[in-house]
Design a protein that fits this description.
228 residues, alpha/beta, Rossmann fold
Length: 228
């Protein structure tokens, strides 16, 4: 898929041949299942590569830098992998592409819709993705058993920003971050975020090669509580 390799070059990402093959296989399986189960509205090879694969991978440098920066504020073993929860994972975006590219990280894909969790389980076996787990529950239910486990929570078009932060908060460890992938930023949505609970660490534009689409990655950290 030259569109994929050209896009990766445009993002200045040098992936292993195995990772590229696995990304291609993921996309083929997504398209195959989508014909029956309607997992995504985006169809067509070029659109799927750009708006699914590259859209998911383009955020990697930003989240890797943010997680590395947070590492300095907590005691952490050198070989301890980052643990990331993907809320409302749907067809596995962005978690599956990220898990392929970053096999040393650990991902929990939280999704309640049965046809989507079936697809995710199929992918896990097909691609032998030992660094992912599928949590077939609503976010509120999963938070009861997964509380405080994660270095980060991420989502792509899951719900509005304020609700996403509310749902994400229980999953985070004390230094955890929230990454919200947004097509566009609106003042109304930003103003609904509780300023006494959340600090906007960064609002970075995301570049997609050969696409004039608006993309942003918002990074949030919880406000530290002061005790007088």
């Amino acid at each position: 898929m030259s569109v994929l390799t050209d896009g990766l070059e445009g993002l200045n990402l040098n992936l292993s041949p195995r990772a590229i093959v696995e990304l291609e296989l993921f996309l083929l399986e997504l398209e195959r299942w989508n014909q029956v189960h309607n997992l995504t509205a985006i169809v067509g090879e070029n659109d799927s590569i750009s708006l699914h694969l590259l859209d998911s991978i383009a955020i990697l440098p930003e989240i890797a830098d943010a997680l590395q920066a947070q590492q300095g504020s907590q005691v952490r073993l050198a070989d301890q992998p980052f643990k990331i929860a993907d809320l409302g994972s749907g067809g596995g975006l962005p978690a599956i592409p990220l898990a392929i590219v970053m096999p040393e990280w650990r991902f929990s894909l939280i999704e309640k819709v049965r046809k989507k969790t079936a697809f995710l389980q199929h992918l896990k076996g097909k691609l032998q993705l030992n660094n992912i787990e599928i949590v077939a529950k609503r976010a509120e239910e999963a938070a009861l058993t997964e509380a405080g486990r994660f270095d980060a929570v991420i989502s792509r078009a899951f719900t509005n920003l304020a609700d996403f932060l509310r749902l994400a908060e229980p999953f985070l460890n004390p230094s955890g971050l929230v990454f919200a992938m947004k097509a566009r930023l609106t003042q109304t949505e930003m103003s609904a975020v509780a300023k006494d609970q959340w600090r906007l660490v960064s609002a970075a534009p995301v570049f997609l090669p050969n696409r004039s689409v608006e993309r942003h990655l918002l990074t949030f950290a919880r406000m530290r509580k002061s005790f007088l």
